[in-house]
Amino acid sequence: MNSKQQMDITELQKLDSQHHLHPFTDAKELNEQGTRIIVKADGVYIWDAQDNKLLDGMAGLWCVNAGYGRKDIAEAAYEQLQRLPYYNSFFQCTTPPAIELATLLAELAPAHINHVFFTGSGSESNDTVVRMVRRFWDLKGEPQKSVIISRKNAYHGSTMAGASLGGMRFMHEQGGLPLPGIVHIDQPYWFGEGGELDKQEFGLNVARQLEEKILQLGLDRVAAFIAEPIQGAGGVIIPPESYWPEIQRICDKYGILLIVDEVICGFGRTGKWFGSHYYNITPDFMSVAKGLTSGYLPMGGVMVSDRVADELISKGGELAHGYTYSGHPVAAAAALANVKILRDEGIVETVDTDTGPYLQQRWQELGEHSLVGESRGVGFLGALELVSDKLARARYPNSGKVGGLCRDISIKNGLVMRAVGDTMIISPPLVANREHIDELVDKAKLTLDQTLEHIPSIKFDE
Ligand code: PXG
Prior knowledge:
Blueprint: H1 3-19, H2 27-33, E1 38-42, E2 45-48, E3 53-56, H3 59-62, H4 71-83, H5 96-108, E4 113-119, H6 122-139, E5 147-151, H7 160-165, H8 169-175, E6 182-185, H9 190-193, H10 199-217, E7 222-227, H11 243-254, E8 257-261, H12 275-279, E9 285-288, E10 300-305, H13 306-314, H14 329-344, H15 347-365, E11 372-378, E12 381-386, H16 401-412, E13 415-416, E14 418-420, E15 423-426, H17 434-454
Parallel strand pairs: 3-13, 5-6, 5-7, 7-8, 8-9
Antiparallel strand pairs: 1-2, 2-3, 4-10, 9-10, 11-12, 12-15, 14-15
Helix pairs in contact: 4-14, 5-14, 10-11, 15-17, 16-17
This protein binds 3-[O-phosphonopyridoxyl]--amino-benzoic acid (PXG).
Residues 61, 121-123, 126, 155-157, 162, 228, 232-233, 261, 263-264, 289 line the site of 3-[O-phosphonopyridoxyl]--amino-benzoic acid.
């Protein structure tokens, strides 16, 4: 890098700190450090402004499923931008890409899901779900059924409704949340909260909290339950096998709506098109975003089951809800190109039958490391629990210190891994091949070794 380039970077970092407020960021701390500026990407790699090449173990933010640099997605968007950059889907109008995308999504979703409402993001999708759930019960003549049950440590977005549905205490504390009518039960996090219980028994116990909550609130008040098939931002929390069948049984028994948040698990992340396929769940709604466009353009949606769509449509009356960018034609064109890539190149299938099992087999090896209390994963999702005592599942003090160190070392080693407290997580692009997986796991292993070496220098009490 020459001095001119270095100056440009320093200048950009200065402007960033002067004018740009970042999401989920301590601005004071960031301004002292300076941002990492990412300038280009290709396949599974990103490059920063200093020309460091990083294997993107997080697919951006769990979204670049098709990998970076797909000209066919860019061209589809460019072509649509020239033909018709914008029109809305209000007032009896729509555009061809929005229609075609809705049709393709209905084909890929479980058979009983045949409608989609388009949004601009996962958060907007979950806001939309709240509106639709309440509209559904209104139309049924039971408007008092309005409470939505969610889970602690869930992530469903950052808008007021999204953050309320989510179970992140630190988010609730900042915003006077949750909104009324949203309550939380425990999460199926065996490693962190299962104690001495057998995994499957623990899974059943936490699922049965749903039944207890319904009975406690009164069935006449409960509208729906929302959950991610596998919690992403919460730390890649994979429920015991006993969990989802029990949740399904309870939703069916009481007739409450089941909302499955597929924002991370959708579009092949588990090796199936949707997490609902992976766990054999029958949702009434699926929220989608991220992998829908592989992040190339912002877009989300709520996929609606026949049970709900029939009610919304047959009774007539307007759904008083919608966004300027619902069904945006350029985003829809990019989504179409992206979903066709995932389908026609067999990318989802490859994750299911080849690269997913290979990643899991290699990821399991990291569970042998003395710093790792558990390694777990499904498809192209993985987590490592960093512990001070393997057998006792004992954590280091001051959660996040060891995880943060590990993440920083990982980046120095050329691998983007994310830390949630002391849980290291990955969610790589679905196009990573066996060589990329070897590189990822080898770099993660080196990172664990170096983290272990550096732990004695951590000041846990600061
Ligand atoms: N649902 C789930 C399951 C998500 O993971 C959203 C909804 C909201 O989507 P939008 O598009 O509004 O961001 C998400 C988003 C993290 C992290 O730190 C995860 C997300 C967003 C930001 C940070 O892992 N997931």
